[in-house]
C-alpha cells in the first residue's frame, strides 16, 4: 500500500485529497499545513509519496526539495500547482517528480496519483 503525506495550507483541499487517496486504497501517513511541519514529519513517517501544494514550498523550492530528498531519497514528490509564474515553475521542475494541476477533475487527479504510485512500487 502506498503511504502518502499531504501538505496543503487549505484544510478543505487536504480533506478532499485525503478522501480521494483513501478511496484509492492509499494510506495517509500524515498531514501538514506548512513546509516546516512537512519537512519535520515526512522522514519519520516511512512515506512513499509527498503531495504538496506549490504555495507551501519556500522561496527556493529547489534547495527545499533537495533537503527533503537527502532525508528521504526514495520519496516521490508530487506538486499541486495552480497558475505559477514561469520562473517559479522552472525552479520546481528541478526537484519535483510530477505536477498535478489543482484545476483537474478528481478522476484525472486520481489517474495521475495512480501513475505516480506505480512508480513507487516498481
Structure, explained:
By secondary structure, the chain is an alpha/beta fold. The protein has a single domain, classed as 3-Layer(aba) Sandwich (Rossmann fold). The chain contains five helices and five strands; from the N terminus they run βαβαβαβαβα. A five-stranded parallel sheet has the order 2-1-3-4-5, with helices on both faces. α3 runs parallel beside α4 (86-95). The model has no long low-confidence stretch (mean pLDDT 85).
Report the CATH superfamily.
Response regulator
Relative helix content: 40-55%
Share of β-strand residues = 15-25%
Q: CATH top level?
A: Alpha Beta
The count of helical stretches stands at 5
Shape: globular
Describe the biggest sheet? 5 strands, parallel
Mean pLDDT over the residues? 85
- SSE topology string: EHEHEHEHEH
Query: What CATH architecture do you see?
Result: 3-Layer(aba) Sandwich
Q: Unreliable stretches, pLDDT < 50, 5 or more residues?
A: none
Question: How many strands appear in the DSSP assignment?
Answer: 5
Strand order of the largest sheet: 2-1-3-4-5
Task: Give a short summary of the structure.
It is built from five helices and five strands. The protein is an alpha/beta fold. It has one domain: 3-Layer(aba) Sandwich (Rossmann fold), CATH 3.40.50.2300.
SSE blueprint:
Blueprint: E1 3-7, H1 11-23, E2 27-32, H2 35-41, E3 49-53, H3 61-71, E4 76-81, H4 86-95, E5 98-101, H5 106-121
Parallel strand pairs: 1-2, 1-3, 3-4, 4-5
Helix pairs in contact: 3-4
Provide the descriptors you would attach to this structure in a database record.
single chain, 122 residues, alpha/beta, Rossmann fold, 5-stranded parallel β-sheet, 5 helices, 5 strands, globular
Amino acid at each position: 500500500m502506498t503511504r502518502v503525506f499531504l501538505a496543503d495550507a487549505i484544510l478543505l483541499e487536504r480533506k478532499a485529497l485525503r478522501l480521494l487517496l483513501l478511496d484509492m486504497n492509499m494510506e495517509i501517513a500524515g498531514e501538514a499545513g506548512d513546509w516546516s511541519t512537512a519537512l519535520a514529519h515526512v522522514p519519520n513517517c516511512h512515506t512513499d509519496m509527498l503531495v504538496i501544494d506549490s504555495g507551501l514550498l519556500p522561496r527556493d523550492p529547489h534547495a527545499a526539495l533537495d533537503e527533503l530528498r537527502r532525508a528521504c531519497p526514495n520519496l516521490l514528490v508530487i506538486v499541486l500547482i495552480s497558475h505559477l509564474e514561469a520562473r517559479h515553475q522552472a525552479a520546481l521542475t528541478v526537484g519535483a517528480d510530477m505536477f498535478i494541476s489543482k484545476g483537474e477533475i478528481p478522476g484525472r487527479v486520481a489517474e495521475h496519483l495512480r501513475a505516480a504510485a506505480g512508480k513507487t512500487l516498481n
